[in-house]
Amino acid sequence: MIVRRQGEAFVLIRQHDHARISGLMARHWRNRPEPYPSVVYAIEYHDVGWQTLDHTIHWNETADAPYSFENFPLEPKLIAYREGIDRVEKRDGYAACLCSMHYASFFVDSDEPQAVAFRDRELERQKALMRHFSDEDRSRLKENLHLLQVCDNLSLFLCFNRPGENTHPWYRDGVKLGSSHYRPVWESSHVIRLEPNPFDSSFVAEIPYQVVGRDRRPLSKGSLRVQIHGE
């Protein structure tokens, strides 16, 4: 889950719903990635492994709040990562390689035994998958991974911040990743643009959410609609 505190309640967004917004952004990206179907599929489905975990709200007793993807226990999280990549691989090997690279990057400097085992297994998966790619597609992996990560972060910006606001500490200076730097500008509470604009046209993102109270009771459900300006 993506968890945003709202007074005495919590706004919850499922990971796969957020990833679908990432995929929508990729479809509207001005500089079309190649191989296009595989890259877009990877971006849209990179969090599909969370579907089972996000079916239920898991409560962090220590924090007295729902677990988020940030603090979810490592072992079940790694299982979800692996199962999600496995699921993508059944559909598209190139997409699976991008998802594997994305998740393995979380643990580059980790010395946690479970994380190291996960990372090493995914590096082996990547090597096996790459044998089936053309030289050209293999050479694009790094830039396509970068696009996945940028779209992931831009979608997270919409999920972590209340409409019309930019208060989450990760994004107060915009969305930065490597040489990419996009500054979100709210034109109203439900209309946003990015500077510089990476999109080829305007589109609407719909983000389903649910709200639960501190007493763990469900309060409401809805869908946040945000118009994203493009050229």
UniProtKB/TrEMBL annotation:
Pfam families per the UniProt record, alphabetical: DUF3891
Highest rank taxon of the organism: Bacteria
InterPro entries associated with the record: DUF3891
Protein name: Serine hydroxymethyltransferase
